[in-house]
UniProtKB/TrEMBL annotation, chains A, B, C, D:
PANTHER family: UPF0045 PROTEIN ECM15. InterPro entries: MTH1187/YkoF-like, Thiamine_BP, UPF0045_domain. It comes from Microbulbifer spongiae. This is MTH1187 family thiamine-binding protein. It holds the Pfam family Thiamine_BP. It comes from the Bacteria.
Length: 99, 99, 99, 99
């Protein structure tokens, strides 16, 4: 089962700047070989369900290992059987209707 | 790693009423033996990370099997190392400050 | 336009315990006269769109005033034209399918 | 109060393809003069709180007017007092830590 996900990891108790923790999650996704695209309030991810979920778990483990004792993550998960759709397909589909 | 989760599964292309699909997810969580509590915009879940995530995957599989060809899920995931906290502990912690 | 909302306010830079800030948001909702129900990962709210949104803004203002310099909120917003549905109706609708 | 938001509008009861409804929301944001950036699972928005919230309400009104009788929206709202940060600043802040 393929999934399009959107991941937003928020470490608590580490002060106001969280970008170092988000950067660590980007490294996790890159190491996992998953297609991913950072945006201003999270990261889009595309891949097989188990691979994406293993990476999300690794993000929590690595962010905790960096010293964040509490994490609150928001994760969106989109699956569909009717057709195979990439991150770029989803954006193109909306943009084609704006022309 | 223990997690407190909040799960909201939205099936698309099945009309306006989605409660039958949400009920199926409740059955999945019960069968998995996970502590869970339905609210008006999702379901709180408490358990080990891998068990919770296996149940979330099963929810997608079962809702697709019911005929929903597309699903968009919102999942919140809270982990903390500083202490063990149950669903009820979280609610009690807020309520104690309202007295 | 009536809305069923789910609000989860996360203050950053204030340490690991956030329940005092969540409690302040509960007070804001009560003062606004909105039907609301706390759960373990947020609060369900029912009301007119503008009243609910004014309360969410007030939550940010009050949590900032308590000393949290950064806030990240997750808000779900459900509107429907086909029928009027309360928080309790939504829960009852799922539970009736579990019997 | 300035806000960085992430908006994901899901119309129900309109079939599997929702891109026409997302495109309408993009038009609403453009008409409102708000800085916004579409991604594969939502749209980042930057602006004053009241202007952003008025646009989100307009999105619901316009998507309902297109024939979607039910909508479920996920909205993230980030506010901070310590400094002024744009959508691009947030992305640059993470990327600078990946070099």
């Amino acid at each position: 089962m393929k999934v399009i996900a959107d991941l937003c990891v928020i470490p608590l108790g580490v002060g106001l700047s969280v970008s170092a923790y988000v950067a660590e999650c980007e490294r996790v996704l890159a190491e996992a070989g998953l297609t991913h695209e950072l945006h201003a309030y999270g990261t889009n991810i595309e891949g097989e369900w188990d691979a994406v979920m293993a990476a999300v778990k690794m993000c929590h483990e690595r962010v905790h290992a960096m010293g964040a004792e509490r994490i609150s993550t928001s994760l969106k998960l989109g699956t569909r059987l009717d057709r195979n759709q990439s991150l770029q397909d989803k954006i193109d589909s909306v943009r084609s209707k704006l022309d």
